[in-house]
Amino acid sequence: MNYLSRIKFISVGLLSVWLIGCATPAADNASQMGAASAPAPALGKTELLWLGQAGFRIKSPGGKIIVIDPWITAGPKTPQPYKSDLSALGKVDLLLVTHAHVDHLGDAPDIAKLNNTVLYGPADMVTPLTTLGIIPANLGHRFNKSGSVKPYPGIKVTAVQAEHSSLIVWKNPATGKNESHPAGEAMGYIIELENGFKIWHMGDTGLFGDMKFIAERYKPDLVLMPIGGNFTMDPEDAAYAIKTWINPKRVIPMHYNSNPLATGTLAQFQAAMQGSATEVVPMTEGQTLSF
Question: Whole-prediction pTM value?
Answer without folding.
Answer: 0.85
